[in-house]
Amino acid sequence: MDGNSVQILVAMVIYMAIVIAIGVVYAKRANKSSEEYFLGGRSLGPWVTAMSAEASDMSGWLLMGLPGVAYWCGLADAFWTAFGLAIGTYLNWLIVSKRLRRYSVRANNAITLPEFFSNRFREKKKTLMFLAAAFILIFFTVYAASCFVTCGKLFSTLFGMPYVSMMILGAVFVLLYTLLGGFLAESASDFMQAIVMIVALTVIVVLGTAQAGGINAVLENARQIPGFLEFFGLATPVVDANGQQLVEAGQPLFGEAADYGLLSVCSMLAWGLGYFGMPQVLLRFMAIRKEDELNRSRRIAMVWVVISLGVAVFIGIAGRQLYPQTHLTKSGAENIFITLATNSLPPILAGFVMAGILAATISSSDSYLLIAASALSKNIFQGICKKDATDKQVMFISRITLLVLALIGVIIALDENSVIFQIVSFAWAGFGATFGPLMLFSLFWKRINKPGAIAGMVGGAGMVFLWKLVISKLGGAFAIYELLPAFIFSSLCIVVVSLLTKAPSKEIEEDFEAVRAGNV
To answer: Most CB atoms closer than 10 Å: which of 23, 235, 318, 326?
Structure first.
């Protein structure tokens, strides 16, 4: 390891020490009860609610996955994905946040998403609770794996160390931190990490653009690549049998631009639908201390999201001008942010910028692991298997769950050629289709009943797997992002089954009307 690498490492260690200190500060309070550990006692302020929600949501793919897409195939995929996410963020804060905060209190003070759905329908047999917890365990394990891939790529690229060793080291750090502090520590550190992320993105895009000769030079280079700077076209790197882009006369080769039609646009915009089912964001709505503070949180969140997504996309475009031959595989393209940072900044400052990637990874993976652990310990163990379980027993089971889930995530992340964007897209579709329609209908349609809720949840999750693994292979229109057809199918299941089965009880309808009227 040379002197520059040592300086980068020192800066990142300082950052990690600060994160651990936050965990220590909140550890005592977090361990008072399961409610404090999993939801922070509904005490989040508007700034922490907004920033922690977005930081935990965006994860390492914001700094690596999204710039990598823009670097590899140009503007269209990255832009329409970012645009869909921005719209989804706004609508989620606008129409879901207040109603969910109010309804979660009415639903017997629910502190987890499975508990909310179960209490919302006043179920005696905890079928909804079990299914919701099971799907959270499945999809969040995949999500956590994407974060571990980010850690592995980051450290192996920076320090020339083996990917697997670095990935495991990152996973261990995230696990220890999550075990320590719980939801409050996670939310407080996520607030800090959201600031680190947006500062890192902004610094790198400014320096990278200046180094490339300015915005005009970056855009002019992009225009030379067929389809690279088009909203309705896609650049197509020419690759060999191993997926390595071919280079001729010192320049990477591209074929003719591919068409990027309305179906492709809809496919990427569909990312926005995922927000309605994202547990890590929905929990922040439930955890804010006052409902009327959500308006301020929405404004803060939108400013952060628009700036971060826009800058991340442009980093990929600028990176193609500066380092056209550095990353010649789709997986390698996700390292363009690291390349820009380490070549644009003094090592000690580059280390702090690299902490932005670590920040994104930690802020997401600790959320994923914590929510998954609460699903098993609070909802399955205490809610179904052992209803008289003490808080101490619930906390013990949650920590065992964290260990097991982290191990499974590490196994999934062992492949060094994993593409972060693709891993995240599958888990995002899973949550969006499984919980998104159910959340919207639960909050805004009085006629939805428990059978309809179960049908929607199972139908949405099942369609994600079916479309991704089978139907999409047919190509053409069937290659659309699985979230969109699965979301529609889940909604249809909810409506049809609810209308064909018995209407909700009077008590459930009274709960709905009370929440709608604001009488909680």
So the answer is: 318
